[in-house]
Amino acid sequence: MLFVVLSCYEDFSYAQKAMEFGATRYLLKQELDEEELPDLLLRLAKEKGIQGGGQPETEMGWRTYANKLVEENGFCRVLILWLQKASDDEKLKVEPEGVNEGLICGLIQEFLDIAHAGRIFLYEKGALLALVKIGELEEIRRFLRRVESQINLYTDQHLHVAVSDEVSERNALLAQIEKAFERGQASFYARKGGIYARDLQWKSAPRLKAGKQDVWSNQWRENTEAEIRAFIRKCETEKCSPEQVRETAMRFVQELVFATERFFDAGSEDIFPEGRNPSYAKLLETGTIGELEYWLLKVWKELEIYADTRKKTSNMKSKPFS
């Protein structure tokens, strides 16, 4: 285990006492660059011969390790863990800066080791996969709260964890991993981190259509923005299928762009120069309902700017489109 003390006290006696208790390093907070802290911890870990990356010491694959837990304990659970920026209306998701996957794996593995609870692995889709022998969900929640409090020292992102049912048969592992990912879709409506341990019955996404009369009139503009906000609030309240919500939002954007192209006799490259046109790939980058709302309103604002610019240079009246 790596033991590092962070302190605001410069008294040498404190540092000396820390070393006597086995501290690897005594660091002063006021002299510490927090962006360099992850690299520093990784370097110290390597110096002490601690292997990072979340792999078991025997370098077993997660399938083999899951089988081992089932054989020895009769079951295991799958945890899918990932970090995500807090959802708000001001900015889209920002990728972690200065947060090394190996470091996060190492931090979580330390807690797993202390509890003798299991192992964590680097997985796909930017997620981590933990296999644990913790049966009670409340115990899992307590464990994860301790993990998150430690992770919060290194990043302002929130920890999301999707939990499977108990796996008691080898051939059920992949199905439970998929179930955990499905439960994790609930994070689409989470404003902060969360633990997702139950199945959800998603509702269908509500209608979102662009009006066809008096396009680009003041009333049409007010109605369109109000429609966007009402759609987001209804989806959030009723917990609509994230996949359907994204598909509905994409069709709506396409309708707005088409209406604008027809009204101004323009192409999408005129409205969105330099390849800024809204695409489904960009839409899929919205990990939460707050990010989706921000993306929709951002596209809408770009259309408004284009419309205002065109109207200033020509005498155009609002009209319907078919």
Question: How would you describe the overall organization of this protein?
Answer:
- The radius of gyration is 25 Å and the shape is globular.
- The chain has eleven helices and seven strands.
- 47% of the residues lie in helices and 11% in strands.
- It is of the alpha/beta class and 322 residues long.
Proportion of strand residues: 5-15%
What is the β-strand count? 7
Mean pLDDT across the residues is: 82
Distance separating the two termini: 68 Å
The major beta sheet can be summarized as:
5 strands, mixed
Radius of gyration: 25 Å
Measured as a percent range, the helix fraction is 40-55%
- If helices are DSSP runs of H or I spanning 4 or more residues, what is the number of helices? 11
- SS content category: alpha/beta
Order of helices and strands: EHEHHEHEEHEHEHHHHH
Shape, per Cα inertia axes = globular
Question: Spatial order of the strands in the main sheet?
Answer: 4-5-3-6-7
Q: In terms of per-residue confidence, which ranges show pLDDT below 50 for 5 or more consecutive residues?
A: 49-59, 89-98
Layout of secondary structure:
Elements: E1 4-7, H1 12-20, E2 25-28, H2 37-47, H3 62-73, E3 77-84, H4 101-115, E4 118-122, E5 128-132, H5 137-151, E6 158-163, H6 173-184, E7 194-196, H7 218-238, H8 242-264, H9 268-271, H10 280-284, H11 289-313
Parallel strand pairs: 1-2, 6-7
Antiparallel strand pairs: 3-5, 3-6, 4-5
Helix pairs in contact: 4-5, 7-11, 8-11
